[in-house]
Amino acid sequence: MTTVRVVVADDQEIVRTGLTMILNAEPDIEVVGQAADGLRAVELARRLRPDVCLFDIRMPGVDGIEATRRLAGPAVADPLAVVVITTFDLDEYVYAALRAGARGFLLKDAGAALLAQAVHAAAAGDALIAPSVTTRLLKAFAGAGPAGPPRQPVDALTEREEEVLGAVARGRTNTEIAAELHISLSTVKTHVASLMAKIGARNRVEIAMWAYETDRVRFR
């Protein structure tokens, strides 16, 4: 069993301790470093190269958004996986975190199971967003609009890729997509990888964002 190495950053010691205890209770997760502010978190992450960074948004000095940008932003050649966790269920935080390169967004009341699931998803290259904010966050992206014209795919999407795109944008997991489209899990993964390559997305969140920005998927 491969152990997922995690760095935890939160300015409240009791929260850091609690998150660390929850994650270390998982048989295949190990917290390898803790930080009380964003600058220290970035330094630790660059030195330790963990599989996942779990960052609070509100931290003194360098906050979680900026720390995420420094480790996982568009300009980073070898980005780390970052999951942002916060008490504040605010659309602008979600928007900023994911634009900065975060692979997940959770509220601190998400519970131990969802927290572990988000860490595993990020380590595997997927993204998990708290179910309570998923639809609203995509509406925030759609409402704000892209910074410029949506990227065009380098090659036209196939009919099956369009189907997988829609399923990813609706928050379906690979397993759910496989069952829904009656294809194998490995075939789903192949289509997801092809989508990322064609539209220049780095993770499932960016695939979903692109689907809404290009009006391939609409809110009901």
Q: Could you walk me through the main structural features you see in this protein, from its secondary elements to its overall organization?
A:
- The chain folds into two domains: 4-141, Response regulator (Rossmann fold); 149-214, Winged helix-like DNA-binding domain superfamily/Winged helix DNA-binding domain (Arc Repressor Mutant, subunit A, Orthogonal Bundle), CATH 1.10.10.10.
- The model has no long low-confidence stretch (mean pLDDT 85).
- By secondary structure, it is an alpha/beta fold.
- It has ten helices and six strands.
- It has helices at residues 13-24, 38-48, 64-72, 91-99, 112-123, 134-144, 159-169, 174-181, 185-199, 204-213, and strands at 4-9, 29-35, 52-56, 81-86, 104-107, 128-129.
- The longest helix is centred in the last third of the chain and has 15 residues, at 185-199.
- Helix 3 (64-72) runs parallel beside helix 4 (91-99), helix 4 (91-99) packs across helix 6 and helix 7 packs across helix 10.
- A six-stranded parallel β-sheet has the order 2-1-3-4-5-6, with helices on both faces.
- Keywords: DNA-binding, Phosphoprotein, Transcription, Transcription regulation.
- Residues 150-215 form the HTH luxR-type domain.
- One of its GO terms (biological process) is phosphorelay signal transduction system.
